[in-house]
Amino acid sequence: MRVTMNIFGDCHHKPDPATGLQLWYRAAKDQTIRLKGENMVLISDLQKFGVSITPVDAKGNKATVDGVPAWNSSDPALLTVTPSADGLSATVTAVGPTGTAQVSVTADADLGPGVATISGTLDVQIEASAAVSLTIATEAPTAQ
To answer: How many other C-beta atoms lie within 10 A of the C-beta of residue 8?
Structure first.
């Protein structure tokens, strides 16, 4: 199964000269979503993106699955996954904390009464967004 990522909003991309990774820019807010290889996405803690699946057979032809594919987040404290009604796409949203989690999707490739589970996974790394304020820490007062 091939997992195709669709990035929301008015976006364009270009290669990062330092790393060669494809950098996706959201023009409206200058947000960046970086694709780290075919199965890794790097986002900030303020971002979301769309994903969709295209079931294919052994020769790469479009195929059909039985029922609605099931989407899952390996860590709902980091990422939520909201599938569409037909299960062929979903919205992945960073919850707030930074870290790494996986988005997975499973489907039944057996169109008859049996079950033949196929799956796809996508690693998502969540990084902190840009600083918006400063926190000042104090020490306990001491005598001079």
So the answer is: 12
Q: What is the pLDDT of residues 110-132, one digit of tens each?
A: 888 888 889 889 999 999 988 88
Determine the 3-state secondary structure of 67 from DSSP. Answer: strand
- Which tokens sit at 36? 């780290």
- pTM of the complete model: 0.70
Q: In 3-state terms, what secondary structure has residue 17?
A: coil
Q: How far apart are CA 84 and CA 20, in angstroms?
A: 33
- Give the Cβ contact number of residue 26 at 10 Å: 17
Domains of the chain: 2-127 (2.60.40.1080)
Residue of 88, 79, 74, 77 lying closest to 1 (CA atoms): 88
Burial, 78: exposed, middle or buried (Cβ in 10 Å; 0-12, 13-18, 19+)? buried
15 CA to centre of own chain: 19
DSSP character for 56?
Answer: B
